[in-house]
Design goal:
The complex is a heterodimer.
Chain A (H helix, E strand, L loop, with lengths): L1 H7 L4 H9 L12 E2 L2 E2 L4 H20 L10 H19 L7 H37 L5
Antiparallel strand pairs in A: 1-2
Chain B lengths: L8 H16 L9 H17 L6 H44 L7 H9 L4 H30 L12
Helix pairs in contact in B: 1-2, 1-3, 2-3, 2-5, 3-5
The chains are: A mainly alpha, B mainly alpha.
């Protein structure tokens, strides 16, 4: 939202805001949602993924709690990934062209599961490092 | 006999180079961050193939971080010739366009000159650093997803037990 806002105000910082997301997204204007009369810094699908990620972060404590380090099963991942995979492949192969709303929705669905991997992975990494550190400490007699 | 786990750098290098090239090449880069996630998943697959034990989510995260850093370096290097090609294309287009249009927008020559100058090494390294951090975050996702899909191994009983 910041990038189109800055561009609408003709701010020189707008270019920096768009450049920040450039490595992450093709930034094609026709495939992006518009705000303040300018496209967002990421496409509709990426916007959906980020919104889904936020949604997943909110859901995580209710579905997993903070004491469990368990990854979702491969089957769940494939089910959640099917809409974005099918839609992306079909758009790429020009079998059909979906609207930005559909791209956004497929991104939200996929993005929702991502925190369940991200948090679990980071937590496991930090816990295992802490365990190693405690093991390496000399034991007091 | 205790089987040693393979090193993480080689799978991360392969996954990172694949992801970095695909992210940098025009047209193919329309899949955005998904290439980085895919590259880290590939790294997790390659690592788990040679590993005698299951991959933990933490292993996947480390693999993903390494893959993301390699992908950022590869992307930055591979993107350079494409940026030069883009600049030359825009220069030619604007030159031809100016023959057909009486009044060109003001300041377009200055804009082209600025673009032709390319980026300074300081900007290049700053961009590389920012990209490495972002790609490492996406790499964590891919590595952990890969660990969950490819990393589970059945524990076989030791041979020779009754």
């Amino acid at each position: 939202m910041l990038a189109p806002y800055l561009r609408s105000r003709s701010s020189p910082w707008a270019a920096l805001a768009y450049a920040f997301y450039k490595p992450l997204c093709h930034q094609v204007a026709s495939r992006s949602l518009h705000c303040f009369g300018h496209p967002l810094a990421v496409c509709a699908r990426c916007t959906g993924i980020y919104l889904g990620f936020l949604l997943g972060l909110g859901l995580y404590p209710f579905l997993r709690g903070w004491r469990q380090l368990r990854l979702p099963s491969g089957r769940v991942f494939f089910i959640v990934s099917t809409p974005i995979m099918v839609d992306t492949a079909a758009n790429f192969l020009r079998l059909w062209q979906t609207s930005n709303a559909v791209r956004l929705a497929s991104g939200v669905i996929w993005g929702t599961i991502l925190p369940f991997y991200f948090i679990t992975g980071l937590a496991d990494l930090l816990i295992s490092r802490e365990k190693k550190r405690l093991k390496s400490l000399p034991r007091s007699p | 006999m205790i089987q040693q786990r393979p090193g993480m750098f080689r799978p991360a290098l392969i996954g990172g180079i694949a992801a970095g090239v695909l992210t940098a090449v025009p047209l193919v880069n329309c899949l955005c961050c998904l290439w980085i996630i895919g590259g880290a998943m590939l790294a997790a697959y390659l690592f788990s193939k040679d590993s005698p034990t299951s991959l933990t989510p933490g292993d996947g995260a480390v693999l993903g971080i390494l893959t993301g850093i390699v992908a950022a370096v590869t992307d930055s290097i591979v993107s350079l010739p494409f940026e030069t090609m883009n600049r030359e294309f825009v220069q030619r287009f604007m030159d031809q366009f100016s023959q057909f249009v009486k009044e060109m927008p003001s300041g377009w020559e200055r804009w082209l000159d600025e673009r032709a100058g390319g980026m300074s090494p300081a900007w290049f390294f700053l961009g590389l650093l920012a990209t490495a951090v972002i790609y490492a975050a996406f790499g964590i996702l891919g590595g952990v997803i890969g660990a969950s899909i490819f990393g589970r191994k059945k524990i076989l009983p030791p041979q020779g037990t009754p």
